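Page header: ASSEMBLY MODEL / two components / 225 residues total.
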Amino acid sequence: GEDVEQSLFLSVREGDSSVINCTYTDSSSTYLYWYKQEPGAGLQLLTYIFSNMDMKQDQRLTVLLNKKDKHLSLRIADTQTGDSAIYFCAVTTSGTYKYIFGTGTRLKVLA
Amino acid sequence: SAVISQKPSRDICQRGTSLTIQCQVDSQVTMMFWYRQQPGQSLTLIATANQGSEATYESGFVIDKFPISRPNLTFSTLTVSNLSPEDSSIYLCSVEYREKEKLFFGSGTQLSVL
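Prediction written out in full:
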């Protein structure tokens, strides 16, 4: 079945850029998402990209998709302490109703 | 985006008891999902709840342990029965808007079993 992998931890200094990476195995994945989970909270949908796109920018967030390598990344510009959270990558295939989540990357922003 | 109200937000339960979690959505949705997030882990889909039909359970999850109700298009409940410490997790309700292919989550229920 589909597998989605992420590195577990990332630590950056406030004001620097953060890059969170994700790899997936199913080449038929059509929608790819990034979610943010703060302590004690549910998951907040940050941004998403369709598989026919290479890049999507949304304010401080940039999503890059390399379909050939099945690699997705989330870049957060000017990272702030409020960005400290767990970030989940998720993928789905149109019409399947099945969302596969990555292991989550814990981002720690140092002041 | 959807407004999804989930309650309780947290609970501490005794072994052998049950906990029912409620999920209320501000608009009608066809598909509602229940996920479990064990400590330090990713999300695992428990079941998919459609209005007017029985829930569809994923491998490893059974109706006797996780009964689900879906009485209408805006509400669902998940019961975790015969609790054991291994059931200590965050339980998350989510909905999908088909026209937008996005999954939205409630705030979660933190369950601790003593």
